[in-house]
Design goal:
This protein has eight helices and 22 strands. It folds into three domains: 2-53 and 145-243, Gyrase A, domain 2 (2-Layer Sandwich); 58-139, Alpha-Beta Plaits (2-Layer Sandwich); 289-371, Aminomethyltransferase beta-barrel domains (Elongation Factor Tu (Ef-tu), domain 3, Beta Barrel). The chain has helices spanning 12-17, 38-47, 67-74, 122-133, 156-161, 214-224, 234-243, 277-286; strands at 2-3, 6-8, 21-25, 28-33, 49-53, 58-63, 87-93, 99-109, 112-117, 138-141, 146-152, 164-166, 181-186, 189-194, 203-209, 229-232, 290-297, 307-310, 313-324, 329-337, 346-351, 354-361. The chain has a seven-stranded mixed beta sheet. A six-stranded antiparallel beta barrel has the order 17-20-19-18-21-22. It starts with a strand and ends in a 10-residue tail after the last strand. Helix 2 (38-47) crosses helix 7 (234-243). The chain is globular, with a radius of gyration of 21 Å.
Amino acid sequence: MTSGTLLRTPLHEEHVALGAKMVPFAGWEMPIQYRDGIVTEHRAVRTAAGIFDLSHMGEVHVRGPRAGATVDRLVSSDIAGLEVGKARYGLLCNEKGTIVDDVIVYRLEAETYLIVVNASNAAKDVAHIRRHVGGDADVEDASLDTALIAVQGPRAAVIMSSVTDLEIREATVEDLAPFGVVAARVGGARAHVARTGYTGEDGFEVFVPWDRAVGPWARLLAAGGALGLRPIGLGARDTLRLEARYSLYGNEIDETTDPIEAGLGWTCHLAKDFIGRDAIAKAKERGPDRKIVGLVVEGGVARHGHQVVHDGKAVGHVTSGTFGPTVGKNIALAYVPVALGKVGTELGVRIRERDIPVRVVRTPFYRREAP
């Protein structure tokens, strides 16, 4: 569905009915927040649960006898070793070794892989995948046929289990391991359910047919209401992911950054051949000139693009910044020279022509307690 030049998800009317403030985002009309605001939504996810409409994300299926080898060549992480019913985070890179996008790959069946890409990169990523796959496998862009609903938070498993039936009869959704994915019915709709997310909490992502999204959304909201489940917009999604130190494409990573400086070298399985592998191996051997670090900001909120300063000179830039409701501090991520990236280093961020003190700290800023 479209509104003018903006796309709408199948849950658009549900958001409007819930009092959402709708804004343009990556070519879509999306909820930035609901009636109670970003901080309330953020805290609901940390203490109870939140439900997110992520239907703007892109979904690409790669199928065929050579699909596994093909996706393994596309993605930086070890896809050849990925079992059916498992998912893995990784990067799409170009030949220069810089980041086209960060993705999650799900192995749904022996010869079927699902690659979930960022909304802002969907068209670019599909073209990249098609170009490099060639005739080795079948590529289907299912982005506008697939809705994606996430339930995140400490009560997510209880809420999900009340409306979910797995195809594996002897198992429940609570048995699903982290980064596991399984066929199921959620709120009566056929779905794939994965124990993945972008908040730093336990949670699930539910892939359903586009035209069946309203049923699972409504059933989940009804089931979770008494347990504190709230609808969550893009605003709290961003504060949650920043506290957990998850990268956002266009902020921490893009085609000017390589995985080593971005702190994502761990996603690169250099023992295999993949697009950009040689350039990344050289970058690792050479060592980065800059690195991404966490900052605590004293007396202001740093934002994307603000300069990081040392002895009055600009030495880097902020990639993301906000007030962290859980940690109770103004926090940011920034690229700085490696020599200035040690924990405890005192720097500054230039906000409205003033240099505000900041300190390099360990990340993630927030880590949930083990159950």
